[in-house]
Design brief:
By secondary structure, the protein is α/β, with parallel strands linked by helices. Helices cover 48% and strands 13% of the residues.
Length: 300
């Protein structure tokens, strides 16, 4: 059995100090939620200008990842992909101490999750595979759904952090890859859904049907969803401010296809969604919200 994590000297019971590594769309939102819950936050980002605004809310913004994790009870990584997580762990290593709990929230796929868990064990860290479901607004409001797998001995120290960032925490199991596998299944639904919205709008355009008429037909019916209305509304208004960037959706869709291939499963819809995301990214929409996949279906 894994030993219970040791709190840092001077730690307040139930009030862990949290190092947030990565303060992009999701990381900054989670950091704000942690501060609102009264937790001490030490924040770092490779582009420091993206971390500095957190200082106004009471966070300590550090120059290096090692400085951010030094003295923290919990480390929360909110980065884009496996490579950036691995590089950040290397940068943070001089400030780490055995017994710190590492919540790894990036969607990196089961294989990389296993690799990161092995690295964590070698450093004496307690690793929790902690991908989250949600976008910018839920992250800022502390309303994410959090999938967690890893040693149950870490629950007590991790719980205040999980409660601050999420409205719901699902403990999936002790295997550190279990949460990542569930996250890929959940993302499959989202990725196919957003492309379905985009294709409906594309067809409406092509057939001369007013897109708003389609939305009005669906509104309030059994097949209507808030997601349909909000994403279609973003296209119609031209506001593609990212809640979840298209380039990140493309990265996740590729992880899903890799996992499916390894499992002997054929995912035709995800393959098509991946191709659409790739075309939209090539057209310059990678930094836009993922509903910019709409532009991959427009007549040239």
């Amino acid at each position: 059995m894994t030993a219970a994590p040791a709190p840092s000297p001077g730690a307040v019971p139930g009030r862990p100090t949290v190092a947030v590594l990565g303060t992009g769309i999701m990381g900054s939102g989670m950091a704000h939620s942690l501060l609102r819950a009264g937790l001490q936050v030490r924040a770092w980002n490779r582009t420091q200008d993206r971390a500095r605004p957190l200082a106004a809310g009471g966070a300590t913004v550090t120059d290096t990842a090692a400085e951010a994790v030094r003295g923290a009870d919990v480390i929360l990584t909110a980065l884009n992909d496996g490579r950036s997580v691995a590089e950040t762990l290397t940068a943070a290593t001089p400030g780490l101490r055995p017994g710190q709990v590492w919540l790894q929230s990036a969607t990196v796929g089961p294989d990389i999750t296993t690799d990161l868990a092995h690295r964590a064990a070698g450093l004496g860290l307690v690793y929790l595979d902690t991908p989250v479901s949600g976008t910018k607004e839920p992250a800022e409001r502390g309303m994410l759904t959090v999938f967690v797998s890893g040693p149950s001995t870490a629950r007590a120290i991790a719980l205040p952090v999980l409660d601050a960032i999420g409205q719901r925490t699902l403990w999936v199991g002790e295997d550190p890859g279990a949460a990542s596998r569930l996250k890929l299944v959940a993302n499959t639904w989202v990725i196919n859904l957003v492309n379905s919205v985009a294709e409906c709008l594309n067809l409406a355009d092509g057939l001369g049907v007013a897109p708003q008429m389609f939305l009005d037909v669906m509104k309030g019916g059994p097949l209507d969803t808030p997601y349909l209305q909000s994403k279609a509304g973003a296209v119609l208004s031209g506001d593609l401010t990212p809640s979840f960037a298209l380039s990140t959706a493309l990265k996740d869709s590729r992880l899903i296809l890799e996992a499916a291939e390894a499992a002997g499963v054929t995912l035709d819809l995800v393959a098509a969604s991946t191709a659409r995301f790739a075309r939209a990214e090539a057209a310059g929409h990678g930094a836009d919200d993922m509903i910019a996949t709409y532009y991959a279906g427009r007549a040239q």
